[in-house]
User: What shape does this take?
Amino acid sequence: MAPGDGIRLRILVEPQHGGAYADFLAMALAVEDAGFDAFFRSDHLLGVVPDDPAYQPTDCWTTLGALARDTQRVRLGALMGAATFRHPGLLATIVASVDQMSGGRVELGLGTGWFEREHAAFGIPFPAQRERFDRLEEQLAVITGLWGTPPGDPDGFSFDGAHYRIEANRNPPRPVQSPYPPILIGGSGPKRTPAIAARYASEFNTALGGDLRERLGTFSRACEAIGRDPAEPRRSSVIPTAVGGTPAETERRASVIGSDFIRTNALIGTPAMLTERIAELGGLGVDTVYLHIYDIHDLDHIALLGAEVLPHVTAMKVATP
Assistant: This one.
């Protein structure tokens, strides 16, 4: 992205109590109507409160596949998908299928996975952190390898890793976007996360908390270390958001934000305060911002953000990384 092109503003929804497909669709249509660039959802099977009896789990990519047919313009994706949930060959096929269904509007966010209780509750293995990073790196090699193999290649695509093996796949999944859908990678790790992102990511997403400037600098240095232009990949950030026209409205929206850590890093206040925070991120080189919303039924929140924040953001300048 060229500096000065403006900031992409997106909505990321992680419902406090989960939601039915009708809830996700209503929110996605509101996001589209308000003019936002994209609608993303979390890839979780449990909520912030792990044993909340009101939580309704849904599969991320099943939802996105349906939204691909029921929306027209917004880009769609997961932030972040858990590499522990799906085999990379299957995930490459799922994402390519949804890319076809959407006419080329899909983005793949992928991370190591972190929610151990969630894995236990659904019988999904949860390896130690080192192995999860190893698996993530192999998954990205498999997914990009499959997507980058031309159909009919006589040799096909093969991969022989410590955790995954692909044998002469001559019928790779075929996404619409060329060379393939954008890949989002992010997190707070100081070594492996930026190194993996430098190699595979179209967009590096910073995690909440910590020194954002240093995290972005570490990613730039990781790109330089492998000969990649640091200005090529996008840089994004997430802002847990509770904005209102009155103090009471703001506090009502803030009350559904989950943990104290998230609340500490949230923007709770007026549209002008949120606009100022986004401008600060643009000054650090962030060109894409995800507003993290927790109440899937509060469509008025989306309308307010679209009317009073979005018009100012699209004209903002982005600093050179």
Observations:
- The chain is about 40% helix and 20% strand.
